[in-house]
Amino acid sequence: MSATTHRRAAGRAAGTGRATGGAYTAVALLILAVMLFPLYWMLNASLLPSTELVRHAPTWFPVHGTLQGYRRALSTQGSHLLISLGVSAGTVVLVLLIAVPAAYGLAQLRAPGGRLLTFAFLVAQMIPGVVMANSFYTAANRLGLLDSPLALVLADSTLCVPFAVLILQASMRGVPAELSEAALLDGASKLRTLLSVILPVSRNAVVTASLFSFLFAWADFLFAVTLTTRDDRAPVTVGIYRFIGAHLSDWNSVMATGIIASLPAAVLLVVAQRYVAAGVTSGAVKD
Amino acid sequence: MSRLLRTSRLFRPAARPGALAALAAAGALTLAACGTGSGSGGSGGAPDTLTEIDYYDAAPQNTQLPQILDECGVRNGVKIKHQQVPRAQFMPKLLQQASARSLPDLALIDNPDLQQVAATGGLVSLSKAGLSTEGLYPSIAQAGQYQGQTYGIAPGVNGLALYYNTDFFTRAGLEPPTTWAELAADAKKLTQGPRYGVAFSAVGTEEGTFQFEPFFWTARGNLKELDSPQAVKALTLWKDLVGSGSASKSVVTWTQADVNDQFMAGNAAMMVNGPWQLPTLNADKKLHFGVVPIPVPSPDAKPVTPLGGEVWTVGHSKPAREAKAVAVVKCLLSQDESAKWSKDAGYIPSNQRAAAQLASADPQLAAFVQEVGTAKARTTELGTAYPKVSQALADAIQAVLAGGTSPGSALSQAQSAAKN
Amino acid sequence: MSITVQGRQAATTAAPAPPGGRSRGPARVRWAAVAFVAPAWLYVAGFYLYPLASSIRMGFQDYTVSSFYTGVAPYVGWDNYSKVLHDGHFGETVLNTVLFTAGSLAFQFAIGLALAVFFSRRFPLGGPLRSLLLVPWLLPLVVSGTAWRWILDTDSGVLNHVLLNVHLIAHPVPWLASTHDSLTAVTLVNIWVGIPFNMVILYGGLQSIPGELYEAASLDGAGGWQRFRHITLPLLRPVTAVVLTLGLIYTVKVFDVIMILTQGGPAGSSQTLTTFAYNLSFQQLEFGRGAAVGNLLIGVAVVFAVVYLRATREQRQAGR
Predict the structure, then answer these.
(1) How far is C281 from chain B (nearest CA, A)?
(2) Which of B12, B250, C107, C184 has the most CB atoms at less than 10 Å from its CB?
(3) How many domains are contained in chain A?
(4) Please, are residues B207 and B378 in contact by the beta-carbon 8 Å criterion?
(5) Burial class (CB in 10 A: 0-12, 13-18, 19+), B58
């Protein structure tokens, strides 16, 4: 990163001219083009007949494209997408319910044993996924929770809670004590202080934690395949896997499914991003 | 499955789903989970639903199998709940189910894994249950046995043969190779521009070992002695094919499905692959190909290929369920169903007579049927020690093809790793 | 953190003020704190304790396929560990893990920070473009990993095609098919996967640094690099510590990327401890040894958790 870039970045509050803004947009587009090239390649593949894919001279543009892949994908993956959305959203809620109070307790109220808890969360992250999956399977089997979205939410949350606690804690530690003390003096309960003072200020971290909880749950394959036995209860990662198997020599359907599967969540991301931006501005107003 | 679970919940007082606290406590509960032997639920009477698990995630097998299961279910008055998991998740899942004592009633297990699973004690002895393996190829019957009992029976088997693109061969004025020397010479001649002479899978798993075994065993190699001169000879053949540019360096990353893609795209004039690719290959009308047995080192030798394919097993539960499951397996193995399965899924019937009939009716399968007669089950030499040796051998193949190690030293390393 | 910055910081309420000095109330206050943290403790006990214990126990057992059904597995002491340590592939695997982790972390973090700084400026379409960078995360790795396999293919891959055309290479590079390049290739793809994670979290961190600090520093005559060095980096430290520690743990744990691209091959050249543990357990069915390798990784996590706690404690003290 160059110093110039940063100087400009630092001036973000001051507002900038149209011309430089346009140049920045151009650079951003270039960055995006490089980062998303593999996706373009999938899009390209999704429109190409299968044998073109292993051709030795790459076909850069799908001029002789076929939409067949999309037709097939749409008809099979719809319900899996809904399940994934539900499970991911549920995971976000559960994660926030546990992580927000914990982070507040650790960062602002200095709960005893806080360092030990942080330590436990960090170490817990390294327990091999297969080992976790094994015990969840046993538990879900005994509780009759196999094929239940609840089991998936609970299992997926283990991927996110430690992350969320750490990131929220890091952010809340930065919230000045004066703010919460003022609220407490005003007679607000700790819970109200958390909800009406601390949370709005650490909105960024909350959104980041939610976003990644959503993404971690969305991308999970191991727990999904372990805890579901019925095809109609499987989230999209498993749905796509089955679809790949069924169309092994039909890569354009596979890539089309991949693209379609990412669309609803991509829309959600853009919407969430607007929300983050709004959060930032409202935070700025508070200053 | 859901029905089953709902019934079984009634028998489990601990089951109160929904509450967060319940699963939080589950960690503690699971400690005591083993040993209750609750089976797959159901009461003493005849069950109305059986569970089944397999790893056929690819077409056409994944669409054909449920049909056949449904048929056999209807015939036995039982509904079969079909579940398919990815290959890589199959053993983990089966083991989870074993430790939760909830093994499925029916499982279609890869034959080299059968002995491992049978060793758990979780499978019903099919020979005791009255199923016979008479008329099946002896190697197939043997692949389903553990400690003198039959635990698994294959509805159909597969092997490996050499596919060749007839257009390329005719244009070059060549006949399909029968010996290693011809294979190497033809491959070299057919390598042109972006096209390679031959493609095979040398991926670093059991799949790569499986593809190498026809050459290894045909050269009279023995899995108990990975560093024998015969083994070195077989690996040298592969090394030379890649070294001379007749086969792509990418073979170490290709699975058998990738190899098939390459062949279909015209990137390879020949490939080593199994009969399960036939339905896909035949669907491409522009592709013209033939199938011959795997080439041999000297004209008088016979190809020895590994026996591929899955065996039906029955998991322990309650006597009534087990009996029902055995009846379904009997139906699945009947000549009718077995022949249908083989035809639709690209398999060779395990029954010798049915296989011979199929070979005369379908010339594409003739090469495979011919090989099944001399095929070898992978666990014959080593039993439950097979997975480890297979891994060592796959590592050696990759070290030679991708890392430039000599076949001799790679194989002697493999031998010491396998003994560890 | 320079003294000037601290002085400025106190002047703005939204700035991360030095913590401490708060909630030094009576014991009753601490009980409230305990109540807030209690669900998290229960969560740890309910969800992680049993898997952790069973993994550690399995590492000391001769755990076979039959053990899953019978529950019987004899204890063998440190046998599994000694066998793993004497495995011919162990040294190479550890080295691969270190190189993979260090390479991934360094580039993910550097590129992620650069992008975060870049995108914290306001410009047309900046917001939507930034969130689109996250899209790779929405694709199941089975799918994007397969796309990468095509891109990196020796003969038909577009990467080699481009590199050949611009004469950066003379012969196609066997990215995934050679023991020399496979680790580079999987690291490359893993960096790609990890950049959005780093960018978003660091971006969040940058957002909470008040713009007034930069303005004030400008008035004091600080240049762009100085401001980055003396404002951005120090104030980003808590977030940096989280990103690096979690990034490290997530990277050591990476499984899918490697399994899809190379399966740890060719010949173990891209094998890391995580894929090695999987391989021991599910290819060779040596569950005890697989668990032993997994436990070594847990040991690694313990070490870095301690480092993290140290780093954050110093931070707190530095803040006082």
Answers:
(1) 9
(2) B250
(3) 1
(4) no
(5) buried
Residues B7-63: tens digit of each pLDDT: 232 222 333 333 333 333 333 333 333 333 333 444 456 788 999 999 887 777 888
Helix then strand then coil, % of chain A, to nearest 5:
80, 0, 20
Contacts of A272 (CB under 8 A, 6+ apart): A207, A210, A211, C131
Highest mean pLDDT: which range of B378-392, C17-31, C143-157? B378-392
For the domain C86-319, what is the CATH code?
1.10.3720.10
Q: In angstroms, what separates the C-alpha of A214 from chain C's closest C-alpha?
A: 10
Mean pLDDT of C276-295: 89
Tokens standing for residue C289: 């040894």
**Confidence grade of residue C315 (pLDDT, cut at 50, 70, 90):** low
Type of residue found at C238: P
Domains and CATH numbers, chain B: 44-157+308-372 (3.40.190.10), 161-306+382-419 (3.40.190.10)
Domain presence at residue A8: no
Nearest CA in chain C to B122: C69
Q: Which residues, 6 or more positions from A69, have their beta carbon under 8 angstroms from its beta carbon?
A: A46, A47, A250, A252, A253, A254, A255, A256, A257
Contact between A50 and B261 using a beta-carbon 8 Å cutoff? yes
Residue B393 structure tokens? 């051998």
Any idea where the domains of chain C sit in the sequence? 86-319
Interface A:C, Cβ pairs < 8 A: 368
- Phi and psi for C120 in degrees, rounded to 5? -80, -5
For C269-286, give the DSSP string.
Answer: TT--HHHHHHHHHHTS--
Chain B hits for C284, CB-CB cut-off 8 Å, are 387-388, 391
Contacts of C224 (CB under 8 A, 6+ apart): A3, A4, A5, A6, A7, A10
CA nearest to A59 within chain C: C158
Is residue C195 within 8 Å of C111, Cβ to Cβ? yes
Q: Sign of torsion, CA B175 B178 B182 B186?
A: positive
- Is A99 domain-assigned? yes
**How far is Cα C8 from Cα C217, in angstroms, rounded to an integer?**
9
Find the CATH number of the domain harbouring A189: 1.10.3720.10
Report yes or no: A120 and A165 within 8 Å, Cβ to Cβ: no
Does residue A171 form part of some domain? yes
User: What's the gap in Å between the CA of A68 and the closest CA on chain C?
Assistant: 18
What is the spatial distance between Cα A60 and Cα C290, in angstroms, rounded to a whole number? 44
Burial B134-165 (b: 16+ CB within 10 A, else e): eebbebbbbbbbbeeebbbbbbbbbbbbbbbb
Contact between C267 and B88 using a beta-carbon 8 Å cutoff: no
For residue B356, give every residue at least 6 positions away whose Cβ sits within 8 Å of its Cβ, in sequence order, or none: B369
Mean pLDDT score of chain A, rounded to an integer? 78
Cβ neighbours around C277 below 10 Å, total: 25
Structural domain span for residue A86 = 76-230
Whether residue B99 and residue A130 make contact (CB cut-off 8 A), yes or no, is no
Which pLDDT does position B4 carry in this prediction? 30
- pLDDT tens track for C81-128: 999 999 888 999 999 999 999 999 999 999 999 999 999 888 888 888
Question: What predicted TM-score, i.e. pTM, was given to this entire model?
Answer: 0.83
User: How much is the ipTM here?
Assistant: 0.79
When CB atoms are compared, the residue of C117, C147, C304 closest to A1 is: C117
